Amino acid sequence: MTSQPILLVEDSPDDEALTLRAFKKSNISNEVVVVRDGAEALAYLLPGDGDGDGLDAPCPALILLDLNLPKVGGVEVLRRMRADARTRLIPVVVLTSSKLEEDILDSYRSGANAYVRKPVKFADFAAAVQSVGVFWLLLNETAPGRALESN
Amino acid sequence: MQIVTKMIPLVDDAFVALLEAVPGAMVCIAANGRLVLVNAQAERLFGYERAELIGQPVEILIPDAVGGLHLEHQADFAADPRHGPMGSGLSFDGRRRDASTFPAEISLSAIGTDEGTLVAAAIRDVTAQLRVKDLERCNHDLESFIYSVSHDVRSPLRALSGYSELLLEEYGGVLGEEGRGYAERIVAVSEQMGQLIDYLLYLSRISRAELHLQSIDLGAEAGRIAEEIQRREPLRRIGFTIQKPVQALADRQLIRTVLENLLDNAWKFTSGRDDASIEFGTVPNSDAVVCCYVRDNGAGFDPAYAGQLFQPFQRLHAARDFPGTGTGLASVRLIVERHGGHVWAEGTVGAGATFYFTLDRKGSA
């Protein structure tokens, strides 16, 4: 089990509350850091925007990214993250209401690791969030931290 | 009119014949802005007789032509009055004899003659094209609307369902049995609404999907679907009779959806019978190359409501008797109509139903 946080990029306070609730019900104990738009996400992930500084905050073990975000959209956040060595290898799961083919393709093309559509029914939504957490935080081996810096 | 008699001999017969042969409206304008030649298409487009136009200023047809169509206003042109295109796709309003106007697209070419340069103007009525553009814009707006509905409505629905479930989980004891029942209804209804929204999205996707038409054996497809249905509920015995082959030109994925919906329905509505039978076959049809039907001996329907069957969210049976969202047949209709065919149904209460659909409209290929 890792002590790195989960970064939740979500503008809807309701979806935020329900996602946090779903994590609470699961065995995942990582801290969840919430940012509410794309600009805030980039400020968190890429402080100083490309001047080579490392993250001030701990590097997230997993990012749950909504697509339809104020200021900077989710796909743009992905693109900018993937262009930067510091965040290139962090697992990103797109978590969105959209199942538009364009959104799915754009997400994968921009470097998403997975794409999960939020179910309407809360029980299904909670199950989806828990599965994502278990897979990416417990089952999956992430890239070693060294690779992030030297890439 | 003096100008006319002076100008016309400049233009040879071959040119006049050519002007008549072009499929669109054409007029020739002299340097002073007066019409010197008009073809039959132009007469028809503007509703004038040729004699009424020759010698008249071009403004009689194109009220705003000044500066745009007058040679003497075009400095470059006066300097180099030779053959060649001057402009195409220019937008003007054309005016007919009855004073009605229409949006026109005009292309201009210069024609050098011994005694001066003429401007040949090809004029096209673009009313229909503009209408298509309007429709395309409307369609695009509608798609954005549907997308935003899907996103914007699903989020609050999830909240509705989520908070109701949290109420049940954490305050279930306080709510009492009746209160829990209400909260459960909220959960169920928000899920149902989620399905309806998904269905709207699905319909919008079908209506804009590109059709990949290929020759398909519908009988073989129906056979495969029947096997899948039978596998799902191996204990139910149903006599399937499937005609093979039934070749038709269709989009494989979409037509499969049609067959799945019709066969699933037949399966569902025969669930009360021990001697259930489902038949897929074809009948001759005067309008279409292929007319298929799916017939069952199940619950049937009241023919008085046959017209409602294919409307989205319409159900002729209570949900507790035959579950469903009332969307299957609406998809069937949409897909068949996208293929240029049509759908209808015949039935009697308690004596089964037959659903027909046509493909490959005769004479359309």
Can you tell me about this structure?
The complex is a heterodimer of chains A (151) and B (365). The longest helix of chain A is centred in the C-terminal third of the chain and has 18 residues, at 122-139. Helix content of chain A is 42%, strand content 14%. Chain A contains six helices and five strands. In chain A, helix 1 (13-25) crosses helix 5 and helix 2 packs parallel to helix 3 (74-82). In chain A, strands 2-1-3-4-5 form a five-stranded parallel sheet, sandwiched between helices. Chain A has a single domain, classed as Rossmann fold (3-Layer(aba) Sandwich), CATH 3.40.50. In chain A, helix 3 (74-82) links the parallel strand 3 (62-65) and strand 4. The two termini of chain A are 24 Å apart. Chain A has helices at 13-25, 38-45, 74-82, 101-109, 122-139, 145-150; strands spanning 6-9, 32-35, 62-65, 92-96, 114-117. With 151 residues, chain A is an alpha/beta fold. With 365 residues, chain B is of the alpha+beta class. Chain B is 43% helix and 24% strand. Chain B has nine helices and twelve strands. Chain B has a five-stranded antiparallel sheet with strand order 2-1-5-4-3. A five-stranded mixed sheet of chain B has the order 7-9-10-12-11. In chain B, strands 6-8 form a two-stranded antiparallel sheet. At the A-B interface, helix 1 and helix 5 of A face helix 6 of B.
Task: Give me some keywords for this one.
heterodimer; A: 151 residues; alpha/beta; Rossmann fold; five-stranded parallel beta sheet; B: 365 residues; alpha+beta; five-stranded antiparallel beta sheet; 9 helices; 43% helix; disordered N terminus
- How many strands of chain A? 5
Q: Give the helices and strands of chain B as they follow along the chain.
A: HHEEHHHEEEHEHEEHEEHEE
- Helical content band of chain B: 40-55%
Distance between the termini of chain A: 24 Å
| CATH topology group of chain A | Rossmann fold
Class inferred from helices and paired strands of chain B? alpha+beta
Shape descriptor of chain B: elongated
CATH architectural group of chain A: 3-Layer(aba) Sandwich
Q: Biggest β-sheet of chain B, characterized?
A: 5 strands, antiparallel
Number of strands of chain B: 12
